[in-house]
DNA sequence: CGACCTATTGAATTCTATCAATTCTCGTGG
DNA sequence: CCACGAGAATTGATAGAATTCAATAGGTCG
C-alpha cells in the first residue's frame, strides 16, 4: 500500500468518491513533486503568470490580495488537503498571492500534470471540480460574513467555520483546535483592524464563549457561540459529486 | 446561420475560443429550453436541491444569500451571457437564491444536458470551466471590496466593474450604461444601508464623478473615478482558456 | 541585552447605521 | 381628471461601531 492513500487530499476526496486503483495511482502521480516552503516567501505572487498549482500536504497557508494602497484582504486560509492556485493555472495568471503561515510541505502540480490527470480519469476531474465549487461556496459565505455581520459575529463565525473544516481532516473537534494564526491574520481576513480584533476576542473570552490563546482556539460554550454567529454548517456538508 | 451564433454567451465565449461547427451546435442545444421569469419570483431557491442551471439570455438577475436574521447579501449580479447556478448543480444543492431584477429570458440547462455537452466537446467544457473561474475571480474582488474599501470607493469600484462587464457584451461604454438596479440593490450588494448608499451617490455626483439616475449610470469623469476606486480591470481581462 | 513581533489597552476621531420624516414618480382606481 | 398608495429616493439628527493614534507589556531570538 502506497503512502499516498493517507494523504489529506486523498482522505478528503475518498469521503465522497470511491476511487479505483488506477485512479489512486493518478492521485499519487500528482503528489510526486514535493516541495517545502517557509513563512515570508510566497508560493504564488499576485500578477505573475505561468504559475503552478499546489496540493497542500502539511501546514497552513493563506490566499490574499493586496491593494494599491497597501492594505490586504485575506480571501481564504488553506489547510492540509486543500488545492492551491487552481484558478491561477486555469486563468493563466494569478489574481492573488499565497503565503505560508508556517513551514509547509506542498506538492507542485503543473498544468500539464493536471490536464493529463483529467484526461486519464474523468471521475477525478469531476471530484476536483466539485471540490473547487465547495471552496467557492466558502468564499461566498465569507463574503456574506464581511458584508452583513458585525465584528463579533464575524469572528465567531470564522472560528467556528475553521473548526468545522479542521474537524473534517481530523485536526480539530468541538473542544477546539491548534491555530497558528496571529491577530493580524484574523484582521486581514475579517476586514477589521488588528486593534479591534483584539477587543472582540477579549469580549468573546469574557463572555465565556471562546478563547484564542497561545496558538490554540478553545470553545468554551460551542452551542452559544453557534447561536451568536448564526452558524449553519450546511454549506460545508455536501453530499459529494454526482459519481454514482 | 442559426440565431445562436449571436447569443450573448456564444458571443462572449467566441471572444476567447474559436468554436467549430459541431461545437456551436452543442451550444445551440444548451439554449433550446427557453423560459421567461418576472421579478418577485426566484429562479433558484436557497436550500433547495435538484436545481437546474440557466444561461441568461436577456435581462438582469442577482444571486444572494439571506441570513437567519433576515438581512441579505447580494453576492453578484448576472447579465446576459452569464451562467446561473452552475455551482448549484455541481453541489447538488443550492446555497443561494437567484432573483430576476427585471423580466428575463433564460435557457434552462439540466445536469444531464451539461454532462452530455461536456463529454461531446471537451473544449467547450474547458471554456465553461474557464468562465466559472473568471466569475469566481469577480466574487473574490467583491470580497476585497467589501473588506478593505470604504463606502465611497466601494461604490465607485462597483459601478466601474459593472460598466466593464457590460461593455464586454456590448451593453455599455466609457460614457455609461443603462442600469435597472435600485439603491436597495446597491446597498445589499455593497454591505451598506440604503440610506448611506444614497449619501454616497450624492457625494459622487456632487464631486462630478458619476451619476446614478433614472435607470442610467453616467460617468462624468471616468479617469478620476478609476483613480478614486483604485480600479484595475486586470482580473476581467484574461487571455482566455488554454485552447491552442 | 536589544530588536522585533505580537498582544493589549485607552482616548479621540471617523465612518456608518438607525430612526424619522419628506418628496417624487408612477400606476391604479374612482 | 384627480386622489390614493406603493415603491424609491432624499435629507436631518442621533447613536453606535470600528478605526486611528499612541503607549505599554510580554515573548522570542540572535
How are the secondary structure elements laid out?
The structure is a homodimer of 244-residue chains.
Chain A: H1 8-14, H2 21-30, E1 34-37, E2 53-58, E3 61-66, E4 72-78, E5 83-84, H3 86-91, E6 97-100, E7 104-109, H4 111-120, H5 122-148, H6 151-168, E8 172-173, E9 176-178, H7 183-190, H8 194-206, E10 210-213, E11 216-219, H9 222-229
Helix pairs in contact in A: 2-4, 4-5, 6-8, 6-9, 7-8
The structure holds a DNA duplex (30 and 30 nucleotides).
> What structural class should be given to the helix and strand makeup of chain A?
alpha+beta
**Share of helix among residues of chain A?**
40-55%
Radius of gyration of chain A: 18 Å
Query: Which descriptor suits the 3D outline of chain A?
Result: globular
Instruction: Identify low-pLDDT runs of chain A.
Output: none
Count of runs of 4 or more consecutive helical residues of chain A: 9
Mean pLDDT, all residues of chain A: 89
Instruction: State which percent range the strand residues of chain A make up.
Output: 15-25%
Instruction: Name the CATH architecture of the largest domain in chain A.
Output: Sandwich
In terms of quaternary structure, the protein is homodimer
CATH class of the largest domain in chain A: Mainly Beta
For the largest interface in this structure, which chains are involved and how many residues does each contribute? A-B, 44 and 44 residues
Domain Cyclic nucleotide-binding (chains A, B): 26-90
Protein name (chains A, B): Crp/Fnr family transcriptional regulator
Keywords (chains A, B): DNA-binding, Transcription, Transcription regulation
GO molecular function (chains A, B): DNA binding; DNA-binding transcription factor activity
Amino acid at each position: 500500500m502506497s503512502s499516498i492513500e493517507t494523504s489529506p487530499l486523498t482522505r478528503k476526496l475518498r469521503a465522497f468518491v470511491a476511487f479505483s486503483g488506477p485512479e489512486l495511482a493518478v492521485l499519487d502521480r500528482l503528489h510526486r513533486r514535493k516541495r517545502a516552503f517557509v513563512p515570508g516567501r510566497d508560493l504564488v505572487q499576485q500578477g505573475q503568470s505561468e504559475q503552478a498549482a499546489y496540493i497542500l500536504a502539511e501546514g497552513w497557508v493563506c490566499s490574499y490580495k493586496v491593494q494599491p494602497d497597501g492594505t490586504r484582504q485575506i480571501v481564504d486560509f488553506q489547510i492540509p488537503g486543500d488545492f492551491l492556485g487552481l484558478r491561477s493555472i486555469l486563468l493563466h495568471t494569478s489574481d492573488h498571492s499565497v503565503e505560508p503561515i508556517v513551514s509547509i510541505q506542498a506538492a507542485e502540480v503543473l498544468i500539464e500534470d493536471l490536464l493529463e490527470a483529467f484526461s486519464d480519469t474523468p471521475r477525478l476531474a469531476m471530484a476536483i471540480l466539485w471540490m473547487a465549487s465547495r471552496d467557492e461556496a466558502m468564499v461566498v459565505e465569507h463574503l456574506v460574513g464581511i458584508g452583513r455581520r458585525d465584528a463579533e459575529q464575524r469572528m465567531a463565525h470564522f472560528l467556528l467555520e475553521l473548526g468545522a473544516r479542521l474537524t473534517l481532516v481530523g485536526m480539530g473537534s468541538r473542544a477546539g483546535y491548534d491555530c497558528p494564526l496571529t491577530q493580524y491574520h484574523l484582521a486581514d481576513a475579517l476586514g477589521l483592524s488588528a486593534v479591534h480584533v483584539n477587543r472582540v476576542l477579549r469580549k468573546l473570552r469574557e463572555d465565556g464563549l471562546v478563547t484564542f490563546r497561545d496558538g490554540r482556539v478553545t470553545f468554551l460554550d460551542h452551542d452559544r457561540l453557534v447561536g451568536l454567529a448564526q452558524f449553519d454548517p450546511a454549506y460545508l456538508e455536501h453530499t459529494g459529486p454526482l459519481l454514482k
